Every structure is written in C-alpha cells, then in structure tokens.
Amino acid sequence: MQYRRLGRTELKVSCIGLGGMGVISQNHPDRTSAHKIIHTALERGVNFIDTARSYFDSEEIIGDSLEGRSEQVYLATKTYQRSAKRAEKEIETCFEKLKVKKIHLFQLHHVQYIEEFQQAAAPGGTIELLKSLQKQGLIDHIGVSSHNPAILPQLLETDIFDTAQFPFSVVERDHFKKVEEIVKRRDIGTIIMKPLAGGNITSVEAALLFLLSHDVSTVIPGCSTVEQVIMDTEAGINFRELTTEEKQQIIKDTENLPDQFCRRCRYCEKVCSKNLPISDIFRCEDYLILSATYARDQYKSLGKSAALCSGCGQCEKICPYHLPVREKLKKAHKRLSKGKIEDFAVRILRKTGLYDIARKLYFELGGKIPER
Ligand code: SF4
Ligand code: SF4
Questions:
Q1: Which of 162, 222, 250, 369 is a plausible cystine mate for 19, CB 3.0–4.6 Å?
Q2: 0.90 exceeded by the pTM?
Q3: Domains along the chain with CATH numbers
Q4: Which atom of ligand 1 is nearest to the CA of 311?
Q5: Which DSSP string do the residues of 6-32 spell out, in sequence order?
Q6: 312 lines ligand 1 (CB under 6 A)
Q7: Cα of 91 to ligand 2 centre, how many Å?
Q8: Does residue 147 contact residue 167 with C-beta atoms inside 8 Å?
C-alpha cells in the first residue's frame, strides 16, 4: 500500500482509505461481515477510516471492530452540528461509540452554504468547541467536508481547516480543479469521496488509479463487501502513476457511461425559481442504495420537496449534461417519499433505545434482509 502525507497534519495515510457508510448494520445485520470488511482493509494496509455521527451505527461498528487495534488506524469523523452546544453532545457520543480517547481528525460535515460555515465559525459555534478540544488534546486536527464546489475554495481560504473532503471522480472533476492550487498553497490534506460516482463507474482500478495520479492524499471508497475492499485496495497496493495519455483515455472511456446522473455543479440551482436544492435531492436518492431510512431522513432535512417543482424547465436549459431534471426530480421524489410508517417506527424505536433489539427480532423472525 502506498502511504501519503495528509497535508499539514503530517499523518501518513494509506492512499486508499475506507469510507464508513458501507459497514452500517442496515447492510450487515449480524455485523460479522462488517467486521470482516474492516479487518480485511487493515490487513491490506488501510490505515485511514472515515465515518460520521450521522452514518447510523457506523461509528459503533468501527469502534467494536477496532477494539484492541485502534492504534493501527487514523480515525476521522464528522458532525453536522453548527453550534457548540449541540455539537458537544454529539462529539461525546463519537468518543463513546468509537471507543477511543483521541480522534485524529474531526470534520465539519457537509457544509453546503457559506451561512452554515459562518454559524459554525461564530462565537459559540462548533469550530470554537473543536479548537478547545484540540487544545485539550482530545482531537488532533480539524477538517471540513463539502459537496459544493462553489464555496469550497472560500472555506479553505479561511485557513481553519487542515483537511478538505470533497467528491472527485473521472466524471466529476470540478471540485479538484477549483481547490488544487489552494490546497497546495495552504498545505491542506485532501480526502476524496465518491471516487466511483456513486457506483456509476465500474472500471474500479482504472478509476482509482486516475485519482491517485493526481496530487490527492487519500481516496475513500465506501465498501459494503469484502470483495470490494480487495478490489479497491488493489489500486493502492499496485499503484503506478498514469501517463497524461492514459488519463485522457480513461476520461474518454467514461464519456460513454449512462450520463443521467447529476455531477453537482449546481448551475441549475441558480436559475430555479423555486430555489430547489436540486443536486442535494439527487444526492439523497443516491443514498437509497445504502440505507432507505438515511436517504429519506436526509431528504426531509433539506426542507424543500421536489414536489414544489413548477415544471418551468429553466434547469434543463442550463444543465451542461443535458439531464432531464424535471423527470429525474419526479422519480426521486417518488422514491424518497415512500416508507413514512416504517421511518416513524424506526425513529420511535431509536428514541426508546429498542432499535437494536427490534432489528434482531425482525431478522430472526423474518429471516430476510429488509431495506433498512
Ligand atoms: S423545472 Fe422545477 S427544478 Fe427546474 S428550474 Fe423549474 S422549478 Fe426549478
Ligand atoms: S442537474 Fe445538471 S446542472 Fe443541476 S447540479 Fe446536476 S449536473 Fe449540474
């Protein structure tokens, strides 16, 4: 496995890390296969695992898996909370679930709008709390994750963040282009998410080698099977720098991908008279493959439903990828609006602390893998 410097954190991280969403118990009801994924990753040289408070029980599963071996990895997690008061409780839970006394990298999760950052950076905001935890030696570094290429450079120019996590793939190259110069100048570590464009890219090794042939610190595919871990880590174990011609060829090869997926450039959102968070709605739809409850929760938290679309078609005129945005929104809304009763039941069970028992019973009695 090749190891790279994570910018000014000076951590030497495996160039292929592990995204924590693939190990949640929605995908691994008895958790044994989740532990196997994590242990296989470690055996193949992965030493960087990224998770988040909002990834259901991902932190807990990672914490259990790493019991007695947490020294072998650098752990990164994140919070959505923008105020210190709300973040404090969450961060306590992160430590408890991950079963560690120190977290190497704590990130402000999914900053999409500059107002969110301003809230987190204001007195009494999450950043103040993270800095104080850093002084106490409880966290080592502070990072940020964002899907919005328009604000990422602004966030990084504040010089608050030691790392930046953003999507980058053969078909989604905007973010990297926009931050390439800044991360170099400020020595910020880069953590690449969505390297396979939500499963749309199937030539895995070539796609990962493409990314690793850029100046990035680590690429973190989410793996939900041991086979995927083996396949994805191959690129880091047998890394070789691709030539310019090879990179161009890979870009050319992926031009033929079914190009109906959103690249999150957000041009459409600037012209939408209903101010719909179009790219975020499609992002929520992508999550359905991992967890229906999570996808629907995220959709709800956007605060704007795709059903508000007036059908004016302005978005389609501006979309550089000629996506049938209206049709896609209708489909996404239909898929994300189902399952209200199940979501309600799951929420109640979680609140009452009975969720794990209920899940166990469900699997034992039903004997089948449900959507959640
Ligand atoms: S068609 Fe719908 S999503 Fe597109 S710009 Fe009009 S209101 Fe917005
Ligand atoms: S729908 Fe098109 S314009 Fe809108 S964010 Fe996606 S790719 Fe960009």
A1: 222
A2: no
A3: 3-253 (3.20.20.100), 267-338 (no CATH)
A4: 1
A5: -BTT--EEESB-EEGGGGSTTT-TTSH
A6: yes
A7: 34
A8: yes
